[in-house]
Amino acid sequence: MKEMTVKVFRFDPETDEKPHFQTYLVRVNDGARVLHALHCIKEEHDPSLSYRYCCASGQCGSCAVKVNGEPVLACMEEATDGMVIEPLDLPIKRDLVVDMEPYLDQIATLVPAEECPLPTQDVVEQIKPLRSCIECLACVSVCPALKVIDFSGPTAMRESLRLALDPRDTGDRVAEAVEDGLFTCTSCQACWKVCPKDIQIPGKAIERLRALANEKGLTLPRHQTVEKLVRETGRSVDRTQETFLEQVTEVLEPYGEVKGTIGFFVGCMYNNRLPRTALDAMEVLRRNGIRVIIPREQVCCGSPLIRTGQIDYVNTLKRRNIDAFVFRGIDTVMTMCAGCGSTLKNDYDCPFRVMDINEVLTKVGIEPPARLELKATYHDPCHLMRGQGIRTQPRELVSQVVDLVEMPAICCGSGGGVRSGVPEEAAALAEDRRIEIEKTGADIVISSCPFCEYHIMEHTDKPVKNITTVLLEGYREKDRRKKEKEC
Amino acid sequence: MRSFEVIDSHVLVIGSGGAGVRAAIEASFSGDTVMVSKTIAGKGGCTTMAEGGYNAVLRETDSCEDHFLDTLKGGAYLNDRELARILVDDAPGRIADLLCWGAVFDVTGDCEVAQRPFGGQRFPRTCYAGDRTGHEMMMTLLDRLASTDVEVFNEIAIIDLLKDGDSVAGAVGLDEKGDIVIFRSDATVLATGGGTRIYDISTNSSSGTGDGFALGYRAGAELIDMEQVQFHPTGAVYPYDARGRLVTEAVRGEGGLLKNIGGERFMERYDPERMELSTRDVVARSIATEILEGRGTKNGGVYLDVTHLPRHQVETRLPVMLEQFLKFGVDIRDEPMEVAPTAHHIMGGIRIRSGGETSVPGLYACGEVTGGVHGANRLGGNALADTQVFGRRAGESAGKARRRSISLDEGQIDLQERRLAAFYAGEVNPATVARSLQTAMWEGAGIFRTGSELEKTLEMINHLSTLNLKAANRCNLIECCTVQNMLTTASLVVRGAILRKESRGAHVRKDVTQAWDASNSPYRHTFLSLCDEGIETGVWE
User: Fold this and answer.
1) What pLDDT sits at residue A121?
2) Which of A84, A248, A465, B355 is deepest in the core (most CB within 10 A)?
3) What b/e readout covers A147-184, taking b as 16+ CB neighbours within 10 angstroms?
4) DSSP string covering B121-182, please?
5) Helix, strand, or coil here: A437?
């Protein structure tokens, strides 16, 4: 037996004006789950505590709660000392009990044909991962899109794809999905990361549904424009100035000793829209001993097409990009766009290693920059934090140069084709982002993704800077101070 | 009637597992149907947790006669012959329904439903959806339910049946706020599932508290063979607070091996022919004996090993097992699981006829709450089939029930109000009573039983039943009612066990020596009702 302190959210709408937290000291056995700690509270301390559970073995999806801010199944998550247990971010009925039914009702149901041809083994294998959903609604509780726009939600989309694949179903699931908000998903991956069954809803369900929508001619006109642009120019955004590739030579030598060589995959946004930022990054790399090789024939990674279901041209892009680096014998390719990085890592089958610039810089270990007298907050790009699991490295870099104030990691609204396809949603999500930024009292916002930077910039008064730009400012300040000393 | 909410329907279905939803679907073709669920429909009950599979004869090389004989032999010849025959004959049709409604079972390369071997069967006839078969069925049934006019009431617990004269005419429910809801119906179907949560170690979900046995018993229904409690051979032993969690028979079906602490495949000593795939009663006793005789692990289990199987097979056929054990720190691809018996299924229950009719007019029953289908030991894979076969039959019969004008004696509702009021004045936390009951049942009415231990256990149950349960608030009323149901169910199990002075199937009396094997037993069903109890005699054909 062991003792632990547990803080639990309490709210009885009949007697309480507002929710409060209550702390309990519980005794549980070794290996006890969150659910067992709740049982202990109810049996030994407070029988009035309300929470749901049924199977206690991760199969029914009744007991999802937030533990230390993250949605989990209470029956499967190990109880830890000091944990804080709250209801999911859904309408609360009482204590840890939330109203699930309105969301469960949104999930489409199969309408069988007269004849019912069994799906083939191949189709069964495609459907099975989608069917393992236990409808715990953890995904719904974290989805940013459905908080600001009509969207039936991640698990409803999952089931829609299953129905679309099933030969026994008679509904027009793809058209329905479009109606229900298929194009509102920002592909932030929050739903996947909290799924106890590890169902990759954005990649395996939403993008597939969008591809089926594409076959039916239901792709949004703005997304079609992007696809046309990629086919014509190799880039997903048009150029507004001299591009990055036009401004650099193919090989950039470092200023001092060579610590390593990498290939650089620039991506459309940094090449066509924010070349200045990419040039800043090159300076930081050169200053830290990294030789950069930049193949000129590289093109769009295909992410804007994959996310919007327009996959016809993607293999061509993949081949051109892979060839560009393989041809030069490059074994490590660096990305600085979170979207490109996630795509190269997750959607490509690369014969080389792919690293984000934050990984590269923390691995090499950077020369310390001067500290700037700035309070900054860091925005986690979804495709960096969830798409690539990179959370600590940017913080390690940022905190060397400014004072970092944390804010909740929420999607800014620019991903998944939402910025171009559903601009009102993108703006609403950016407004949520702005409010959180305001709360931090930071002077500047730092991020590590051109889509996030560009989008947040439009929705906040604060300067938004790329992490490498801030590092470079730190180096320039360092040089200035050094020079000042010398004078 | 006073200011209670009153819900009228032709058919009232109590329970939302596989049997309940199937019954509601079928009943809806004949009239207004209401389904009441203690949980959110589809999440409670044991169907959704059922992992292994569904037995049905689907191949020309298999036969219903073989399935029938396997079921009888597995059931130690205590099965109601007619019900067992119906089970095997109807099972293929009912899986066809599920497939038509969209169930995603594993299929072979030839697009036939895949089948795997399960214990006690001469043919691999267990159909499956990985190791989440029941969940797949539940999702399919809910889809189908959504296309009917059935009105579903979630998170309402039925606390007693209502009668009009001799016949059942509805039920009293408590909603999540503790308010009374009255249901009036021409026909009422009990599909409340089992009740092995009366044991300390159990696979059952939170709703496996025997509510239906108690509701039926109090309404005058006859129950049979309540002593027949299946202990599943393989329940998890770690972590302690999650003890009893089911480790599916599919693990052994896929080739998993049982070994004691010495690495010995001990089933060789108990059933050399069938080994790990012997019937559940035999395997459970073998494991219990190994542990009792000191050949178990430190955590009190034996090893169940799949490390010799191809990793891919474990990943695709047993994904839920893999995931659960990984969460608890064991990678079953590399290390053996530790398992021990756990109370799983009550074979006994309300006596029914072929259409789910009980001994009380107006009351029907289906699924685990009924007795007779599985005899003294249920074959793995027969319970899911049972839910569908008898769910449909009970739903159909209830749907055809005569429409009548119902007059409810308000005294019944007064009685329930007084019952609830008493809980506010009670002294004992129902959770404490439940714990005491579970321990007493595990120790005194478990795998191995004696007359004197059973008598002692019954005394304990009777004592616990005298305690005044306390409701801390309105939401606790349901828990108090539930614990009363657990006490009633436990009492029925123990009384049945005292009545059956022989070892048969899952029921083992160590204090009785007998000169007969199961097929020649002079005893038939034990029976219990408000007015009578005993054991039927006579050798079956």
Assistant:
1) 93
2) A465
3) ebbebbbbbbbbbbbbbbbbebbeeebbebbbebbbbb
4) -SS--EE-STT-HHHHHHHHHHHHHHTS--EEE-S-EEEEEEEETTEEEEEEEE-TTS-EEE
5) helix
Q: Do A42 and B431 touch (CB under 8 A)?
A: yes
Of A75, A109, A128, the CB nearest to B143: A109
Query: B166 CB contacts (<8 Å, ≥6 apart)?
Result: B220, B360, B361
pLDDT of residue B1: 46
Please answer yes or no on whether B147 and A109 come within 8 Å at the CB atom: yes
Q: Are A131 and B129 within 8 A, CB to CB?
A: yes
- Terminal-residue alpha carbon distance, chain B: 53
Give the Cα-Cα-Cα angle B181, B186, B191 (nearest 5 degrees): 70
- Residue whose token pair is 């301390």: A45
DSSP A87-139: --SS-EEETTEE--HHHHTTS----B-SS-PPPPHHHHHHHHHHHT-----HH
Nearest alpha carbon to residue B198 among B449, B507, B433: B433
Supply B337's token pair. Answer: 């699981």
Please say whether the beta carbons of A81 and A4 come within 8 A: yes
What domains can be seen in chain B, in order of their start residue? 5-228+347-399 (3.50.50.60), 235-343 (3.90.700.10), 410-513 (1.20.58.100)
B377 touches chain A (CB under 8 A): no
How long, in residues, is chain A? 487
Question: What residue ranges define each of the domains in chain A, with the CATH number in brackets?
Answer: 2-98 (3.10.20.30), 104-215 (1.10.1060.10), 234-363 (3.40.50.1860), 369-486 (3.40.50.1860)
> CA nearest B471: which of B460, B458, B482?
B482
B252 in active site: yes
CA angle at A460 for the pair A458 and A464, rounded to the nearest 5°: 80
What digits encode the pLDDT tens for the residues B17-55?
999 999 999 999 999 999 999 999 999 999 999 988 999
The DSSP code for B541 is: -
Q: pTM, whole model, 2 decimals?
A: 0.94
Give me the sign of the Cα torsion angle A310, A312, A318, A321.
negative
Closest alpha carbon within chain A to B205 = A55
> Strands, DSSP E only, in A14-104?
20-28, 64-67, 70-73, 84-86, 92-94, 97-98
Active site residue B67: no
Q: Do B43 and A30 touch (CB under 8 A)?
A: no
The tokens of A351 are what?
A: 């014969």
Residues of chain B contacting A55 with CB distance shorter than 8 Å: 43, 48-49, 205-206
Phi, psi (degrees; rounded to nearest 5) at A330: -85, 130
Choose, from B252, B317, B345, B509, the residue flagged as catalytic. Answer: B252
For residue A127, the chain B residues in CB contact (below 8 A) are: 104
User: Of B94, B232, B345, B495, which residue is the catalytic one?
Assistant: B232
Residue numbers in B near A36 (CB within 8 A): 241-242
Is the Cβ of B439 closer than 8 Å to some Cβ of chain A?
A: no
Residues of B in contact with A28 (CB under 8 A): 241
**ipTM for the whole predicted complex goes beyond 0.90:** yes
A chain contacts of residue B140, beta-carbon cutoff 8 Å: 110
State how beta strands A375-378 and A332-335 pair: unpaired
- B327–A32: do the CB atoms touch at under 8 Å? no
Q: Positive or negative, the Cα torsion across A139, A140, A146, A151?
A: positive
Q: What is the pLDDT of residues B55-104, one digit of tens each?
A: 999 999 999 999 999 999 999 999 999 999 999 999 999 999 999 999 99
Beta bridge partners of B54: B127
Query: Hey, of A59, A120, A160, which one would you mutate to test binding to chain B, going by the most B CBs within 10 A of its CB?
Result: A59
Q: Per the omega criterion (within 30 degrees of 0), is the bond before B239 cis?
A: yes
Chosen for mutation from B104, B175, B344 (greatest number of chain A CBs closer than 10 Å) is B104
